[in-house]
Amino acid sequence: MLQVVLEELLESDHVYFQRPGNILMDDYPVIRYELDDVNQTFADNLPYRSDDRYQVMVITRKPNDPVWRRVLALPKCSFERRYVADNLHHFVFNLFF
Predict the structure, then answer these.
(1) Distance of CA 81 to CAs 8, 11, 41, 74, Å?
(2) Which run of H or E residues covers position 78?
(3) Residue 88 host element (H or E)
(4) CATH 3.30.2000.10 is right for the domain spanning 2-96
(5) What pLDDT digit, counting tens, does each position of 43-69 carry?
């Protein structure tokens, strides 16, 4: 399960599926992920295979935090972008899992 894989990479349970509504994310780094797309392959007009693509975001106070490199090392993971908001560094990835 993706949740377990990301918790192991982060070495913490500060991993959230989608944006948590009632949880204050103030202990960094955190990982937030959500289902972004589903690529389907068809055979004889029927779904043959589905690949789920997740958007994974590492949010940290340090621009050189090693967590984002560990996420990038996952199979079928690609770097999308990086930005800074509210003095927090956001590293965004696309991950097929």
Answers:
(1) 23, 23, 27, 16
(2) strand 77-85
(3) strand 88-96
(4) yes
(5) 988 888 989 999 999 999 999 999 999
pLDDT of residue 25: 76
Instruction: Render pLDDT for 1-20 as a digit per residue (tens, 0 to 9).
Output: 999 999 999 999 999 998 77
Q: Where are the domains of the chain?
A: 2-96
**Token digits of residue 48:** 């043959």
Contact 53, 91 (CB under 8 A): no
**Does the pTM exceed 0.85?**
yes
Helix (H, G, I), strand (E, B) or coil at 68: helix
CA distance linking residue 97 with residue 59, whole number of Å: 20
Alpha-carbon span 1 to 16, nearest angstrom: 13
